[in-house]
Every structure is written in structure tokens, then in C-alpha cells.
Amino acid sequence: MYLDNAATTQIPLQVLEAMEAHYWNYNSNIHRGIHFLSESSTARVEYARNKIKEFIGASDPEEVIFTSGTTQAVNIVAGSYRETLEAGDEVIVTEMEHHSNFCPWQNACNRSGASLKIIPVDDNGDLDMDVYKTLLTERTKIVAVTYCSNVLGTVNPVHEIIRLAHDKKARVLVDAAQIMRHTSIDVNYLDCDFLCFSGHKIMGPYGTGVLFGKREALEELQPVNYGGGMVDTVTYKETVSGELPFKLEAGTINISGVTGLASAVKYLGELGINKISRYENRLLAQAESMLREINGVHVLGTPSERAGVLSFELDDFHYYDTAMMLDKLGIAVRSGNLCAQPLLSRFGLSGVVRMSPAFYNTEKEIESFVNGIERIISITARKIA
Question: What pTM, to 2 d.p., does this model score?
């Protein structure tokens, strides 16, 4: 029973077939040749770019940058800001960020002399928006915020966060890695400057991801990686970057992976994101309700809105031991610090157990998972007795 979908999702047959078809029928590098295979491969990549544009509601396919995942997408933006930030400038992140949207900004501030400000999380697991309003100043250059916490499942009020930041003329980057399967995304409605997500969390292959950016925001970025395909001219004295999206796509992208990602997006679109979300929310609510009835189980947080994940701890059980015993029962969950040590420290924890259902899980499986927790507690209690 697989309940670790926040870490990665299982891949549909359609996605595997799309990737296989590339290698069987179109295997060639893109944007480099005038022969049939190269042009066919290029066309499939640009088709994928258009599918992603439609999936997130972007206005222009050139606003879609292919990356290896959310981590690289964030680092492209943070790496560019690292070169332009100055002492006295400010970057705002939240206390609940995944390390991938915390460490790059921390590094950018440490190396530039800018200040890193952190929006705190309250006892329920929601962001303290009153504090956020006080952190924003005219020196705030960018706000980098997760749409959904990978630990608490907190769905943040990103629309309000973006609006308030724009009132101060600050850019906003949204880490959408954990939300893409749980709500429809429209970047024009959100009005975010940047949005990042990974393919493997939405039924796509590893090594694929997207950096969306408003054209003017992307134009402001300087490349942090240099190589083939992203340049216009190179002389002994200087390199002139090419046009979007290529100036931020150094080297050969994961061509087969991108075609697989397009297939995954098509698959999710046909199922219906809102339909998926309603079903997964029902499974999550079922798990939370059942876990809260068990003595010795402590669910982390009671956020205003939760999606995707449920983290918890058991009295007298180390989180690794809990996950290991569940694995022996055939139940796969995640355990550890979940790459969110600042957040766990705020709650006085070093690690938790996390379950995260997907639409291919069932209510019966949720019952079996909870029964597994009860069995672990009862077996251990009998041994102690």
C-alpha cells in the first residue's frame, strides 16, 4: 500500500509509453539540427511547453522554462537574485518552507548582505499574516512562499500574500510542488511572478520540472548556468544570452522526460484536477478523523485548510521505528525531518511520520493504514506488559 505520494507519485502507462515512443521513434537532440528526427523531437518538446502553458494558465509558452525539478527552478531565480541583492535589501520566506525554497534564499542573503525575514507559523500551523504585513517594506525585493506545506499540508493564502507583496513592488515566487495535484492553478489569476513545480509529483518522470515566470520577471533574471543552446553569440570577450525561454535552459533538457510530463499533464487534465482534489481531500479527512481517535497518536497541526499530507507522531515511538513497522505491514509512508527542519524545530520536533494519499488510493486502504497504527501500538503494549 503506497501512501508516500507527497514524495513522488506512481507513473501512468500513458506517460511511460510517451517516453518510450521518444526513444523508439524520435530520439535526437532539439534545436540543433535541420534533419527530420531533430525537428520531430523539437516539435514534441514545444508541444509539451504549450501543454504546460495551458495547464497553469500562462499567457505565452515562452514563459515556461523546463528544469530538472522545483529545486533547480528555485535556484535559477535565487541564483540570479544573489548577484543583484545588496546590503539593506530584504527577502521574505516562511517558517514552513522546504529546504529547497529556504536554503537558496538564505545563501543569496548571506552572500549579498541582504536580510532574510521569516514569516512565522502559529500553533495551528497557519502563517501569521499579521506578522507578514509588518515584515514587508519598501526594501523587500522578493517573497518566496510555498503554496502548500509538505509537512502540515497547510494551504497558504497565496493570493493575498502576492497582492500585499506587489503593493510594496516586491516580486513573488510560489513553490507549488505540493499543490499541483490538489487544486487548479491559474498563474494569471494568482498574479505570481514565478511559480515552480516538479514533474514526479504529478504523475510525471523524475528529472523534470517547470519554472514559470512573467515575461518581464524572467527578462530580469541573469542566467546562472551557461552552455549550449542558451546563447545568442559568443566571442573571446563576451557571451550574449539568447531569447526566452532558451536563455534559462542551458544544455540539453530531459527531452524524453518532458514528453512524459506533457502526457502526465494531459492525463490529469482528463481526470479533472478538481475531481481528484475532492476525492483526495476525503481520504485525508478520513485518515485524520480516525487517527485523532487513537490514544497516543498526535496529528501535527490544525490548519485552516489542509491538502495532500498528514504528519503525526506516536507516544514512545521514534518516527523511523513507526515507519519501519508500517513497512513490515506493507504500508509505505515517509518519516524524518521531511526537508523542513526550521518548521519542525518550531514545534519542538526532530522528525515525524507522514502519510499522503493519492486518487488511486481507497477508503479501505486508509482503514488498513489506521489499523496498522493500532496494531503497532497494541503489539508494543503487550510486549511491555
Answer: 0.96
